[in-house]
Protein 1
Amino acid sequence: MRHFAVVGSGPAGFYTAEALAKAYGEHARIDILDRYPVPYGLIRFGVAPDHQSLKAVAKRYDKVAEGETVGFIGNVSLGSDVAVDELLEQYDAVILATGAPNDRKLGIPGEDLPGVIGSAAFVGWYNGHPDFADLDPPLGGTHAAVIGNGNVALDCARILAKTPAEFAGSDIVGHAFHALGNAAIRTITVLGRRGPHQIAMTPKELGELGHLEAAVPLVELADFPPRDADDALEPGQRKSVTILREFADIRANKSKAMVFDFFARPVAIEGDGRAERVIVERTELDEQGGARGTGETYEVPATLAISSIGYSTPPIAGVPYDERGGKFLNDHGRIAERLYAVGWARRGPTGTIGTNRPDGYEVAEQVAVAMPPGSDGGRGGGEGLRRLLEARGVTPTNFADWRKIEAAEEGAARTGSPREKMVRVEDWLTTLGR
Ligand code: NAP
């Protein structure tokens, strides 16, 4: 018998557990650990609440968790409740699927002013992440800025732009639904440090902006290279750029504007004790396609500035870390003897949910080569971990506990919404009678 611990119950963790369960059958027990009492990581806390079709992948993960050989151990934090070394004593292999929940920093003056918020925090707030339940982003001003030209920037800008009616069917948490419904924001400036050809936004996500009820996307065709230049782009990027160009033709009188400001690099955020404006330097492309400052600066008014410039994986004591990449140092997922990383903790914060599937399967295959199914490692696995946690007064949750929380959340849903998420760890535990 082999025992495996997968730390993190987001897509990377679940695909890895699925792959290990398939590879080993009866010959392994796989525990999926999470620091929260509830599973799904990015699916629950990252994927936008108005993208329910993407969240539906959790149904596939449910099947994994309900498999005979797989268990869910929630409410256990790696680092504070149990150390990596201790897991390695109990399990034959430990696979870190801890994601990349930390915001990358802009590194500019004024970044720490109230009103400047990282996208992880903002996304966490509207998605009911317990760490950001009290974020209370300032929504009383008329101008907001979103820094970055990736899909997360798009999510943040779209959520700011939507009307309450447009959240029908979503599971945006009540506190965010009400606060956004009362928000005064009318202009959302999306700042890209390079041009339209360099965006990291995908066509489907970009296309949604053309159909918003109260907001119109605004682009300047002067920012684009000649149309012929689009032919050199790879097909997906060409599609995105075509959609952007089409935005220039939209003639609509709407109450909100989403302004795409390209070649605009934030160099400071200023204000009297809180964010009031982003100081932006005009850029141009250098020979390598990077952003080169022109020295010309201007102000973009913003009492809320969301920086959405990528994420990093939190380091764990004793696990080699790649500072530049913001992930664990690894070779094709292998960090050290019996220790692996998958997903964003392995590759850095890029790729879609589906990218994690081959990633998890590849690492599971490596594990299976190193410890062939049918071999025995002589370790305690989940039983050993449970004893350790009990001695420390840590009470984990299991998948049946999650099902109880899920039922309570579904029962509390607004009309038309799939669930009303609880946003505090205490509330999850109270639901379980703890
Ligand atoms: P991303 O795709 O890497 O985009 C980061 C953006 O931030 C880029 O436009 C980058 O510009 C910009 N940036 C980086 N450093 C900057 C700085 N110092 N100043 C100004 N701009 C800066 O990251 P993401 O948006 O966080 O998304 C992460 C991954 O999740 C991506 O693979 C994304 O596609 C995926 N995702 C998918 C969906 C979906 O499918 N619906 C939704 C959300 C996220 P440069 O290009 O110039 O570096």
Note: Residues 51, 106, 147-153, 155, 193-194, 198, 200, 202, 205, 265, 308-311, 349-352 surround NAP (CB under 6 Å).
Protein 2
Amino acid sequence: MKRVITFGTFDVFHVGHVNILERAAALGDYLIVGISSDQLNFSKKQRYPIYNQHDRTKIILSLKYVNEVFLEESLELKLEYIKKYNADILVMGDDWKGRFDWVKSDCDVIYLPRTPSISTTEIIEVVKTL
Ligand code: C2G
């Protein structure tokens, strides 16, 4: 029984998010998703998400291949979350390549290629021009 963990904001949910969650789920038997809190997102991106953390959590939890979700309050707590949720594999998109290699002593780390040509930032920009 392999437990997979992944992290993200998943704001303005789109197919790139579906693709990574689907591929992460396929690497094991149980998928746990850490959802960046509104505050963590502000500290990473200098803006609050369009969808608040409650709505983002509800959306991710509704997916058929997601088993469990929790709020990620800090990037530095990765290892604590991995231990708490007993994860065997950490999956991240390759925009984070190398950034979480420091947890490799406790957990396998796999960076998957991002889905090209779609991102929350790009969607926001397109909508602004309409
Ligand atoms: N993603 C993807 N393809 C895209 C867009 C996003 O594969 N076109 C992936 C990202 O690589 C990430 C996940 O979807 O693994 C969530 O993306 P974001 O919501 O942008 O997550 P981010 O804000 O980078 O938060 O602890 C790490 C962070 O919480 C990750």
Note: The longest helix spans residues 15-26.
